[in-house]
Write a structure and sequence with these properties.
Chain lengths: 410, 506
């Protein structure tokens, strides 16, 4: 059904209201993020969206976002991975031992760490996929094993510092490729001290790309008579997302530009969103999580896909572990402690279903940032860790209750 | 005799649809009323109104029960008055015992402490009433569906039932179990229990019902009394579908072509008990354009045979040869079986056939995703075109292919499963109970689809527990008993008696 122009204003309004109710979850997440950001922006007297804090916010949450990508796939496949915090810590420790104690070059270290992550994922996925042992138990064991293993590797000590090129993974910035004079004149025009043109141009082109893709999708939906979004909603949603992107990148451009980690995060997010929504393997993972027996009888290799979901999770945990260690510039035995819970929370806040088969990459990423903004905002306000934990717990519960309520209503 | 229950002009509206429109029915004390109608006709809604799932005030009309106006605000209210519904999906807890299930929510207890002796004694009594001789401590898990159905009835009896409502009670039962259940219904009637049976199986309805009420599209179209008039199945069917159905089984040109499937010396062992052989030396062939049936009682091994052929989805130590078009093929995994040209439409479409929360489109393309992809990348427009072409070809009634299949009726869900397998472009389709739990109109459509397939030169192997269906549809019928083929009948030789005698003389 499409909204026709003959509708009286009143009828159209009812249509929009109904549409909003049906898609409350998708908009709700976006609105919640905006509302929380607005709240903290006011409560912190503008500190939240200062360029330096925006940069910090991205760096602080990068490893959660990276792991949330893998966790979403694991959860969509109908499983859970409790070991990612420990695996992340273990890989960070492995990197430190290789570089600091064994003097290995950075690129060998990175390759070894990723391979180690894949191996750990494979070791856990094997029992889940081919032996049918519940993932909760296998990864609970993994959580203990790798927490212990990082303690053993580091002998209880912190290990650092890392060489500059390793640190660049987390703390580096992409150099501006545009001529300096260009940036200066734009800066003068906007009344800023400096503007990193690369960041600004990236923001504007990303916004344009989103506009183009959304328009294309909308046109396609129209053709197939799918439930199209009311026009006002479409423009408001795409407008807000694009504006937010340009705004964030503008903020970054007036500080130090594009963090390397943002590129990693952005590229991975796009890749995984594409993988889950547009590829054969991605689709089969949803089918596997939706009904494993039916998927199996439809020729989906369910065991192999489950196995690969865990291998992938291991690789992403390894990348996150290196980013984390590089950011702290040392590996500590406590690195990644209890972080698996933040990652899992991000995925569920993002709308994934505990029973599998439902969830989106973008949702998980937004969920991670929602938690990140909460953390960051509350820290700026000086709210104690005690209250922070309680508030985060309640937010998670509220998000899931909201999901269940919505499902019951439909 | 006076009316125990009278429902007068019940109207129930949901946003946008009138599910019930002025529906009336009445049951006298000690009578059996059959409520028949196609899926989606409004039978379940009517029963939900009666049992208080939809409370007083949410519908129009009156319910007079036991001489008084009934105003139920929930199931607890109606149960307190002795109205008990046994749903199609049984509500038993598999890992609790028969006794525990019977008294679940109705425990024989004093001050919260359960009196197990009394529980067991009463269970034994109740089981005797329903003709079940299992020890009360047996886990529900360990008894078959037929016996579980009897436990449900015992549970209802434990609550001093006055009006027992059975929703499709024989849908999952074998012929023998069904007969036992129908006999029990008649016995309960003799004891004065008033009953309403909802069923698709018209021969069963004719066996037990004193009165028949037909519902179509949310209105009651006819009320017949079996004691004063002769009721033919044709008349019921006509009222149900609102048109004459010349034949229950559409006609088909019967011409078999060359041999497609050839299975030789197929042996299968139980997946858990390696020494228990489930399938013994089965040999079968299916030719192009042929519909071949497999008849047998529940537990004869028909589904096990089909699943073991389809990618070894059942069993272990499987031996034997499968030939397609005379060439030996590997069917050791589902994907290899599909690649060799096999497709298997499962018996249990909700558990094994569909991903209920996904859209029609995504269910249809699942078995052959590479066909709508460019390498790994899905072509969504192509996918939608494919789904829509099957929606049109198989007449799936839905507003769009982006609807979730959970919202479809049983018949339409079955068409989605069929679409999924047709899209895999098989040479041979194994259909396991293809019309179970779907209404007469949709059955007829499914038969039409099967005929189209055979006209296209595909082979169809059809498993069914409804013998008339096999007799009406098949060119040849294999009769199976205890894991082995005990006979083969051509369409001319086949009759219900011929099939049964092969089974009982085995």
């Amino acid at each position: 059904m499409t909204t026709t122009t003959e509708n009286s204003p009143n009828e159209q309004k009812a249509g929009i209201g109904e549409y909003l109710v049906r898609h409350l979850r998708e908009y709700g997440l976006l609105f919640a993020l905006i509302a929380i950001m607005a709240f903290f922006q006011i409560a912190t007297n503008g500190t939240l969206l200062k360029p330096v804090n925006v940069t910090n916010l991205l760096l602080q949450n990068s490893y959660i976002v990276i792991m949330a990508l893998g966790m979403l796939i694991v959860i969509v496949a109908g499983h859970i991975d409790l070991s990612v915090g420990s695996v992340m810590g273990f890989v960070g420790a492995l990197a430190a031992v290789m570089i600091v104690e064994l003097d290995q070059p950075t690129w060998i270290t990175i390759a070894t760490c990723i391979a180690a992550g894949a191996l750990i994922g494979a070791a856990q996925g094997y029992w889940v996929a081919y032996w049918g042992i519940p993932s909760f138990i296998v990864t609970l064991a993994g959580m203990l094993v790798f927490r212990g293993a990082s303690l053993w590797l580091l002998e209880g000590q912190s290990l650092g510092p890392f060489p500059r090129e390793f640190q660049m993974m987390a703390n580096g910035f992409v150099p501006d490729i545009f001529p300096a004079g260009f940036g200066e004149s734009v800066a003068k025009l906007l009344g800023e001290r400096r503007v990193n043109m690369l960041a600004l141009v990236t923001g504007v082109s990303a916004a344009c790309a989103i506009f183009w893709l959304e328009l294309k999708k909308r046109a396609q939906n129209r053709v197939y008579g799918m439930d199209t979004e009311p026009t006002a909603f479409f423009w408001a949603r795409v407008g807000i997302i694009s504006f937010a992107l340009v705004f964030i990148l503008f903020k970054l451009s007036t500080f130090r530009g594009l963090p390397n980690v943002l590129i990693t995060m952005g590229v991975l997010t796009i890749l995984y969103a594409f993988f889950t929504e547009r590829t054969v393997t991605g689709r089969r993972i949803y089918a596997l999580g939706g009904n494993i027996k039916a998927a199996k009888l439809s020729g989906v290799k369910t065991a192999r896909l489950t196995f690969l979901a865990f291998v992938n999770m291991g690789v992403l945990a390894a990348i996150a572990g290196m980013v984390f260690a590089a950011r702290l510039n040392s590996a500590t035995p406590k690195a990644g402690f209890a972080l698996e819970l933040d990652v899992i929370a991000a995925v569920f806040i993002g709308g994934a279903s505990m029973s599998g088969g439902v969830g989106k990459i973008v949702g998980a990423v937004v969920g991670a940032f929602l938690m990140g903004v909460l953390n960051n905002g509350m820290s700026i306000l000086g709210i104690g860790i005690d209250y922070q934990q309680m508030i985060k717990g309640l937010v998670l519960l509220a998000a899931v209750i909201f999901d269940v309520y919505n499902k019951q209503k439909s | 005799m006076s009316a125990l229950l009278e429902m007068r002009a019940i109207t129930k509206e949901f946003p946008g649809v009138k599910a019930l429109d002025q529906v009336s029915l009445s049951v006298d004390e000690g009578e059996i009323l059959a409520l028949v109608g196609e899926n989606g006709a409004g039978k379940s809604t009517l029963m939900k109104v009666l049992s208080g799932v939809y409370p007083t005030g949410s519908y129009d009309g009156e319910i007079i029960y036991d001489g008084a106006l009934a105003q139920f605000s929930g199931i607890a209210d109606s149960e307190a008055k002795g109205i008990i519904i046994i749903h199609q999906e049984l509500a038993l807890v598999p890992l609790l015992s028969i006794a525990e299930n019977i008294f679940l929510g109705n425990e024989q207890a004093k001050g919260g402490v359960i009196n197990w002796r009394e529980t067991e004694q009463r269970t034994v009594e109740l089981l005797r009433k329903v003709g079940l001789s299992e020890p009360p401590g047996t886990l529900i898990d360990k008894i078959g569906v037929g016996k579980q159905q009897l436990v449900e009835i015992a549970k209802a009896l434990a609550k001093d039932v006055r009006l027992l409502i059975l929703d499709e009670p024989t849908a999952a039962l074998s012929e023998a179990d069904s007969q036992a259940l129908l006999d029990l219904m008649l016995e309960l009637k003799a004891q004065g229990v008033t009953q309403i049976i909802i069923s698709h199986k018209l021969n069963e309805v004719r066996q037990v019902a004193d009165k028949i009420t037909v519902i179509r599209d949310g209105t009651s179209v006819s009320a017949m009394d079996a004691r004063t008039e002769t009721i033919t199945e044709d008349k019921i069917v006509r009222d149900m579908v609102g048109r004459d159905m010349a034949a229950r089984y559409p006609a088909r040109d019967r011409r078999a072509g060359e041999k497609i499937l050839d299975v030789k010396n197929w042996n299968v062992f139980h997946p858990l008990h390696a020494d228990r052989q489930v399938i013994h030396d089965v040999n079968l062939t299916v030719n192009a354009g042929e519909v071949v049936g497999i008849a047998g009682l529940m537990g004869a091994g028909r589904t096990e045979l089909a699943m073991s052929l389809f990618g070894q989805s059942y069993g272990q130590k499987i031996s034997g040869d499968v030939l397609m078009h005379g060439q030996s093929v590997d069917v050791s995994t589902v994907s290899k079986a599909v690649a060799s040209g096999l497709a298997y439409v499962t018996e249990d479409r909700k558990e094994l056939g569909l991903i209920l929360d996904e859209t029609i489109q995504r269910n249809i393309t699942l078995s052959n995703l590479p066909e709508v992809a460019n390498g790994q990348i899905l072509q969504e427009t192509k996918e939608t075109r494919v789904a829509e072409s099957y929606r049109d070809a198989l007449n799936i009634r839905t507003p769009g292919v982006f609807q979730r299949v959970v919202n479809l009726s049983g018949g339409n869900q079955q068409k989605v499963v069929l679409s999924k397998w047709l899209f895999a472009k098989p040479e041979l389709l194994i259909l396991d109970e293809p019309t179970r739990g779907i209404d007469v109109g949709a059955k007829f459509e499914i038969y039409g689809i099967i005929n189209d397939l055979s006209a296209q030169g595909k082979g169809v192997l059809m498993i069914s527990s409804e013998m008339p269906e096999l007799l009406g549809m098949c060119d040849r019928i294999y009769v199976m008993n205890e894991g082995a083929f005990v006979g083969e009948l051509t369409a001319e030789e086949a009759s219900q008696e011929a099939i049964m005698s092969l089974i009982v003389t085995d």
